[in-house]
């Protein structure tokens, strides 16, 4: 079983939920839920269990990212990449941007 | 694209990925961004985004007929929308270096760090961003709204002290509190977050307008985007601010006469702004607010945000529908310049007091005991006629009843004032509010005086 290197970035206030860290490189299993390949859904749960420091309800809603938080996978809108079903690839660059209380 | 159908397919076969779609604009490049129901490639997204901004800003420039040479101010909170706005205005103004649309651009930021324990000032970070653009920067601290120069006359030194059954105008020096203490006392005495947020916003707005005016700026750019505006449309309505809603959410308003407010971001979703900033590499500054990190029910504003953003996720036309409906609202014919709320500076409805007394259960406790409460009008008159001619100098203890004071407030601010606890530390309202009261009194006195002497006046030439 191999592992995947993923770069995570947080901005717009999401970083506050992650120990005020704006960027983090992580390594996760290529199959968190064997035999299925690791998807965004797995990654988000993994982030919740391993990285999230505060208030999960401000990051998540159900098993997905809270509405109002924008997700870009390699500069592409995750809504076009299958959202939770997207299969993580090695070297992916994933950005979480909060658009809430902006003005 | 049909969201519902896609969801169904996903349920049947979770492994299926959405078919790669092409950009709706150039039709050739692979789409990477979904805005409402349209898919764009990165290049076309940027083109459309900038285009929307330019269309709005041109429209406002043409409408005001100001040509070039206008001095303008950008209200810069540091949040994503105003960050994008700063970049877009600067790009717009520098398209043709020989022909700049605005002769001078001033950037103004109001620091609210006082409200958050031990937080660093936001001014240094903001200034660093603004420096890249070479624009003059004005950094203000919200508490300095208590300075005597943040008034029309520029040196008005009286404030209003709210007590249990009266509101007193007194000289600022008589108060032992610093501006910071005054602001904190005021906000701490407001129990509801909704009212607190409201107060903070209007204090900021008044401060921005005053600063624009004093710096000779004829236009103030505010960064409200369409997501924000649709949240405002709903929350203002639920706070009873429907009367002034068209002024507070429109793309442009001249309600403040010499300072026009323009909202050039009004057609952009917060999602578009987030993506634009990310692609343009525009750094964002996290600006804390009183409801940051709080649950959705903390205030009407927060609840509305949560509601709209959730709805938008399922129905991507929510925001644009609300915003477009809001844009159709025009200011009421009954909006009168003289009926300007002394706190939020927004218009209030003529006779809203009578209406309110009839419809809403709202009494001021101590007055009710002593006065039975139906003879409000009488009380008002007798107080007013005390010294109809004295208008220049205010004695130290000129007091008015709470009723008199609330006469000069809009419905929304009245509700907020009701939320103020007067038992604790002194609640003091800034000089610009006191100045507003006096101005109004002067006007009323003049009217009254005119009425008294009307029959003795010779025909007024102007009226002939
Ligand atoms: Zn394209
Ligand atoms: Zn008001």
TrEMBL record, chain A:
SUPFAM superfamilies noted in UniProt: MoaD/ThiS (SSF54285)
GO BP annotation list: protein urmylation; tRNA thio-modification; tRNA wobble uridine modification
InterPro entries: Beta-grasp_dom_sf, Mopterin_synth/thiamin_S_b, Urm1
Keyword Cytoplasm: yes
Pfam families found in the cross-reference section: Urm1
UniProt-annotated location(s): Cytoplasm
Annotated TM spans: none
Keyword check for Metal-binding: no
Glycyl lysine isopeptide (Gly-Lys) (interchain with K-? in acceptor proteins) cross-link site: 103
A GO CC term assigned to this protein in UniProt: cytosol
Role, per record: Acts as a sulfur carrier required for 2-thiolation of mcm(5)S(2)U at tRNA wobble positions of cytosolic tRNA(Lys), tRNA(Glu) and tRNA(Gln). Serves as sulfur donor in tRNA 2-thiolation reaction by being thiocarboxylated (-COSH) at its C-terminus by the MOCS3 homolog UBA4. The sulfur is then transferred to tRNA to form 2-thiolation of mcm(5)S(2)U. Prior mcm(5) tRNA modification by the elongator complex is required for 2-thiolation. Also acts as a ubiquitin-like protein (UBL) that is covalently conjugated via an isopeptide bond to lysine residues of target proteins such as AHP1.
HAMAP family linked: Urm1
Family the entry assigns: Belongs to the URM1 family.
PANTHER family: RURM1 PROTEIN
The protein, known as: Ubiquitin-related modifier 1
Annotated organism of origin: Glomus cerebriforme
Gene (name only): URM1
Automatic annotation (TrEMBL), chain B:
Compartment(s): Cytoplasm
KW NAD (keyword) present: no
Pathway(s) where this gene product acts: tRNA modification; 5-methoxycarbonylmethyl-2-thiouridine-tRNA biosynthesis
Keyword Cytoplasm attached: yes
Biological process, per Gene Ontology: protein urmylation; tRNA wobble position uridine thiolation
A Pfam family hit: CTU2
Transmembrane parts of this sequence: none
A single MF term (Gene Ontology): sulfurtransferase activity
Domain of life per record: Eukaryota
Main location class: cytoplasm
Record keywords, A-Z: Cytoplasm, tRNA processing
Cellular component GO terms held in the UniProt record: cytosol
InterPro entries, per the entry: CTU2 (IPR019407), Rossmann-like_a/b/a_fold (IPR014729)
Main function: Plays a central role in 2-thiolation of mcm(5)S(2)U at tRNA wobble positions of tRNA(Lys), tRNA(Glu) and tRNA(Gln). May act by forming a heterodimer with NCS6 that ligates sulfur from thiocarboxylated URM1 onto the uridine of tRNAs at wobble position. Prior mcm(5) tRNA modification by the elongator complex is required for 2-thiolation. May also be involved in protein urmylation.
Family listed: Belongs to the CTU2/NCS2 family.
Protein name, as recorded: Cytoplasmic tRNA 2-thiolation protein 2
The organism of origin for this protein: Glomus cerebriforme
Lineage of producing organism: Eukaryota, Fungi, Fungi incertae sedis, Mucoromycota, Glomeromycotina
